[in-house]
TrEMBL record:
Residues 84-298 form the ABC transmembrane type-1 domain. This is Permease component of ABC-type sugar transporter. It comes from Rahnella aquatilis (strain ATCC 33071 / DSM 4594 / JCM 1683 / NBRC 105701 / NCIMB 13365 / CIP 78.65). Keywords: Cell inner membrane, Cell membrane, Membrane, Sugar transport, Transmembrane, Transmembrane helix, Transport. One of its GO terms (biological process) is transmembrane transport. It is a multi-pass membrane protein. Belongs to the binding-protein-dependent transport system permease family. Pfam families: BPD_transp_1.
Amino acid sequence: MMLEVSPPDTVAAPRFPRLRALLEPWVYLSPTLVLIGLFIFVPMAIGISYAFQNIQLLNPFDTGWVGLDNFRTMFDDRHFYAALRHTFNWTLTSLVLQFALGLGLALLLNREFPGRRWVQALVFLPWAVPAFLSGLTWAWLLNPVIGVLPYWLTDLHIISEPYNILSDPQLALYGPVVANVWFGIPFFAITLLAALQSIPKDLYEAAAMDGATGWQQFCKVTLPFLAPMIAITVMLRTIWIANFADLIVVMTDGGPANSTSILSSFIFTTAYRKLDFGYASAMAVFLLVLMTFYALVLLRIRHQLLK
């Protein structure tokens, strides 16, 4: 007696396999994309729309769409141009000093020496301090009544007598710059140290065997490998510094005589003290466009460096 063996069940091939393969990753990403849209892009769109409206809480009955009027007011406002000029000064000075000192610190920490891990912990400490507390501490240090820095600056013949430079319109901006440099050095030190540790040691050994000096090794081996990381860190830090109003608000509040007012602090003052959200949003949109253009340029440069 022969047993009948039924043929194995065949699994039907999925319909539209290419479409399914194309859509499957987006299905997995959809929860994240929804959250990003709700918490980033929707508020951004609402904020951009405010730039084309008249929204003054002190004049609630005169609201509505005004088109480009806020932008026309912005480009006719001398305080806006002063804040823009201070923003370039604040960002460039802070960025150059943070990068130079951070790179030097990363090169130092890349070498073996006793107690290096303790030094690393101390170096990264400023990054963990809240910006408000950092600004308050530096404001106290620059105060000649309770701080020592004015007396040190006098002994170094940088200033003629001990006084609070935060009250000097010519020097006030450099108080927050010093605090910002102290606050931002760890970012460059951390990222550049990680990039330095990824460079193969064989390249340095080969360069030394070819008779390259330490400076030549730095220029021909270290910098080419660091260049892509430098481009991305400079881009990120520039955007953060340009939008970083905390130290200025705490230390000088934009004064004296608006000599330390940058765009981000001017936007804060316009929105939350003058309660003019339309004009503040117009300046914020201008800053967004400016930083987006800058980021695209830096990303293009980084792409060329990676080739």
